[in-house]
Design goal:
There is one protein chain. The protein is an alpha+beta fold. Helix content is about 40%, strand content about 20%. It is built from ten helices and twelve strands.
Length: about 375
């Protein structure tokens, strides 16, 4: 296994060969003997850190053979000076092999840890179904660093008696505490989504579960811990959307070449801040035309910055790439666009959930799709 990371530019892997060529050339033509030796040592160590064991051995062999040829050229191959030079060169080559083995061992350990984290992530955050009735669904979770596979962003999709319900959330903080909060949040959502006809009551159930769990944490975590969330309900028949925003970034509706944010006047407080006593804002209804796609994101998207510090704007950037044929294509385009925008690793995790209402005739309706909805609408937004 090569320890060379794909995050490095491709030309970096040629650095050991360039150092070998430069060091041997310097030794061959410099007035003093072996001034290029530091370059040769650097080549061996760099090869061990960047390349596979086979290539590291090849670099080391090239250095030893090159230095031996120089000792023969200089007439020192049979005396103590030449022998010491060869011993030093061999030691440098072995040092490169040692570096390679240490990095490879840590790489194998990281692979084990990563596989465990991936298994935990799949258990806590399973992939949503690809289709429910006339809704096509796709989701993606990307950690801020490629070595990390688990974090505090969450999403869920569930068919309920009140319609298909979705949630996306972002837990303040990282690490095991955030993962624990995600687990509690998703469990509360899956249970309450089946029972509560009103989205505000659903959010209250989720908040109660979080507050109950926080009783076992420190006072600081209780005061500072909160979760932004967006709860969405696709009305029966997929005729419209009902959104309840709990301090979360607004979703986007992509239809034809238009991408617009479904902003509300008062997004409400995040979950976990009910102790402040503020009343929870009501849900808002939006149209959901056939062929359109609803995009739910976390702040890992909206807070992504380019080199000039400008925030990424999905409405502006995605409009140049539409229309999209489905949720998977939209998410792939968004992920590639954010990576290109930042030009490197992000500072925050990124979770994305997208649902497309298929054009009638292209998908079979789900059983009970046209069941009545008993929730009272609080606000209605025109198309």
């Amino acid at each position: 296994m090569s320890p060379f990371s794909p995050r490095w530019p491709r030309y970096v892997q040629f650095a050991p060969s360039v150092l070998v060529a430069g060091g041997l050339t310097w030794d061959a033509f410099s007035p003093a003997d072996y001034w290029g030796d530091p370059m040769l040592t650097a080549a061996s160590v760099t090869a061990g850190a960047l390349l596979s064991l086979r290539h590291t051995l090849a670099i080391g062999a090239a250095i030893v053979v090159g230095v031996f040829a120089l000792t023969v050229k200089d007439g020192t191959a049979d005396n103590l000076e030449g022998h010491l030079e060869l011993v030093n060169t061999l030691f440098a080559a072995l040092m490169g092999v040692g570096v390679n083995r240490v990095i490879a061992r840590h790489g194998r350990h990281l692979d084990v840890v990563r596989s465990v984290a991936e298994a935990a992530q799949r258990a806590v955050l399973p992939a949503p179904p690809e289709r429910i009735g006339r809704l096509a669904i796709a989701a993606r979770y990307q950690a801020a660093q490629s070595e990390a596979r688990i974090g505090g962003d969450a999403y869920a999709v569930q068919r309920t008696p009140f319609g298909v319900r979705l949630m996306i959330a972002d837990v303040r903080g990282k690490g095991l505490g955030a993962v624990s909060a995600v687990s509690v949040l998703l469990g509360a959502f899956r249970e309450a989504a089946e029972q509560e006809p009103d989205l505000r009551a659903l959010a209250d159930r989720m908040e109660h579960a979080l507050l109950r769990e926080s009783e076992h944490t420190s006072e600081e975590n209780r005061l500072e811990g909160f979760i932004t969330a967006l709860i969405c309900e696709v009305l029966p028949g997929a005729a419209g959307l009902r959104l309840l925003n709990c301090g979360h970034p607004a979703p986007y509706l992509c239809h034809d070449d238009e991408v617009r944010a479904l902003e509300v006047d008062d997004p409400g407080l995040p979950l976990g801040m009910g102790a402040l006593g503020a009343a929870r804002t009501g849900p808002t209804d939006w149209p959901f035309p056939a062929g359109s796609t609803l995009l739910l994101i976390t702040d890992g998207v909206t807070e992504a910055r380019d080199h000039a510090g400008t925030f990424y704007d999905p409405a502006t950037q995605l409009a140049d790439h539409g229309p999209f044929r489905g949720p998977r294509e939209l998410i792939d385009r968004l992920a590639a666009d954010v990576e290109h925008w930042t030009g490197g690793p992000r500072d925050d995790d990124m979770a994305v959930l997208a649902i497309t209402r298929q054009v009638p005739g292209r998908g079979r309706p789900a059983p009970g799709e046209a069941a009545p909805n008993t929730e009272t609408r609080s606000q209605t937004r025109p198309a």
